[in-house]
Write a structure and sequence with these properties.
The chain is an alpha+beta fold and 64 residues long. It has one domain. Helix content is 33%, strand content 23%. It has two helices and three strands. The protein has a three-stranded antiparallel sheet. The chain is globular and about 35 Å long. The chain starts with a helix and ends in a 9-residue tail after the last strand. The mean pLDDT is 92.
Length: 64
């Protein structure tokens, strides 16, 4: 999981603004507007690995 978080923090994910993204083994394995579909695809592609699933905020979102 740490590996996926590091990938998330270092990557330019601007192509996925407003979408849910699933990261597994330092790769984006699924993305889209529907979190249930993203979760299902990630589960199929990651098998036993645990994916990091997060929403990529738009530029106006302020994170503290």
């Amino acid at each position: 999981m740490e590996e996926n978080y590091q990938f998330f923090m270092k990557s330019d994910l601007s192509n996925y603004i407003g979408e849910w993204v699933a990261i597994c083994k330092s790769r984006i394995v699924s993305h889209g507007k529907d979190v249930k579909k993203v979760f299902k695809e990630a589960k199929e592609k990651c098998h036993q690995e645990r994916a990091l699933i997060t929403r990529i905020p738009n530029e106006e979102t302020m994170i503290f």
